[in-house]
Every structure is written in C-alpha cells, then in structure tokens.
Model the fold of this input.
Amino acid sequence: MRYAVLVTGPAGAGKSTFCASFMTHLLASKRTGHLVNLDPAAAPDSFEYAPSIDIKDLISVEDAMSELGYGPNGGLVYCFEYLLQNMDWLEEEVGEFEDDYLIIDCPGQIELYTHHPFLPTLVRNLQRLGMRTSAVYLLESQFMEDKYKFFSGVLSAMSAMVNLEIPWVNVMSKMDLVLPNTEDPAAGGRNGLRTRRNIARYLDPDPLLLAAPHGSGDEVNSVNPRFHALNQALVQLIEDHPLVTFLPLDLTNPNSIENVLSHIDYSMQYGEDEEPKEPRDLDDGDFAEME
Ligand SMILES: Nc1nc2c(ncn2[C@@H]2O[C@H](COP(=O)(O)OP(=O)(O)OP(=O)(O)O)[C@@H](O)[C@H]2O)c(=O)[nH]1
Done:
C-alpha cells in the first residue's frame, strides 16, 4: 500500500515547513517518506529536503510564462492542465515507491482547492495507481486575530473538503505564535495574537463568534449592519454542517507534531493492510550484531 498526503492551504500557511517536519518525523520513526513538489513556481532553494518528485522537472510556471506568454496565475493553471495531460510522467515517477508516504507540497493559490477540477482529477489518478490519499489543510493561527478572516478561512477549508472528498485533517499552524494565557496582547506581546484561553472557540469553530450582537464591544462594531443577515446565514451554514475542526500545530513541541501525524495516519488507516513479514533464518551477520 502506498500513501499520499496533499498538504494544502492558503499562501504562507506553513505548508513547506510542515512538509519538512513531517519528513523529519518519519525519518526519526524509521519510516520512509518522499517529498513531492507540486508547485510549478516553487523557488529551488525553498525545500529543506530535496523533492523526490518535482513538477518542475515536467513543467514550470517560468516555462509557461516565457514560452507561452501567460501571467503567473494563467501559467499555474496551464501547468496543472499539462500535468493532467501527462499523467504517465507522474505514474513513472511514483512507480518505484512502495509502503511509503508521498508528502505532496501544493501551491498556495486557494482557487486550486475550491474552484478548479485539477486536484480532484489528480486524486483520482493517484487512487488509480493504488494510493490511499488524504489531505491536510493548514490555516495559520494569525487568522484568529480577525474573526471575519478566520471564518473566511473556515469556509475555504469547507469548500476544499467538499471539492476533494477524501479523508481530511484541518490544522491550525504556527501555534508557537499564540500567546500563553499570562501574556497580555495589549502589553505588546508577540504579534498581539489571541491568548490560549480563547483558542477552543477557534479550534472547534464557534459560529456564535460571528453572530455577536451589534454593539457587543467586539470587532462587530466595525462591520456594516447590512452584513448581519449574511453573517447569520453563515452561522447557520456552519452550524448545520460542522465539518471543520482544527488540530493545533506547534512545531516547537514534538508532541504536537506527533498528534497531527497520528491523525493523518488514522485518516488513511496507515499500516492496516500490512502483511505480517515472513520470519527469515538468522545468518552469521545477525549473530555478530547480537554480540
Ligand atoms: N513562527 C512560525 N513560523 C512559521 C511556521 N511555519 C512556517 N513559518 C514561517 O511562515 C513563512 C511561510 O512558510 P512556508 O512553509 O513557506 O509556507 P507555505 O504555505 O509553504 O508558503 P507558499 O508555498 O508560498 O504558499 C516562512 O517564513 C516560515 O518560516 C511555524 O510553525 N511557526
């Protein structure tokens, strides 16, 4: 069995950093993983681990821009169309990997997850190649600074989940930037982020954060009252379809990484199909090792 994890989320959410930690963790647990770069615009020096498979070996945004005259966004769309027309290339590239995790670092253009058919088609192709596929969606903790931005992140995650229809893990990244309870953001704490006391309402999004009554003293004061009906409709949607909850990820804490990775394993039922290995006869080398 082979496993592929799409690492998705908005630009700058920490996808490449998470992929590198994922790789480090797999290696430390004596498991094998391979990084796949699916961003045709990625800078060559942006990877801590060299990708085993790199879309840029097939096509890059620079190629699409210089040879076909596309802009950066049109170039990205062209690259994905080109990839889907050349699935035999990907098939050949993943051909050798067995019992491994492919960690697929995706681009940060959110429309790829919510609008375009590319990733669902890619997932179907990976499944055809015998891969169990899941996705991780990262949203950075700074989104909690502004509840409207946060709920737009929740809706994007929801839309991506519905678009891809595969096992899914939402992650609140960069939790090291969130203040401990004792620090007062008003006193100039790091980035003025929310304290951990309030985090639960964001990890399991409480739609009532959006519905705070006008004049309640929260940021709602700055919002035009005409949007209140829209907010109420969103609250209803999130309440009726509670699909999105976040796992906190603090890369400075190994237990936090372990927790996220165990959810990914669980979402894909990692190792469930493994056959017990045939015992083999001991040879001289084994006895030498024991001594
Ligand atoms: N404090 C903190 N910074 C982080 C963390 N993860 C990523 N960063 C920083 O956030 C910035 C973006 O990180 P990337 O991993 O490149 O994010 P990305 O989602 O791959 O970015 P794009 O590919 O451009 O969409 C970098 O400056 C990272 O150093 C984290 O857990 N904590």
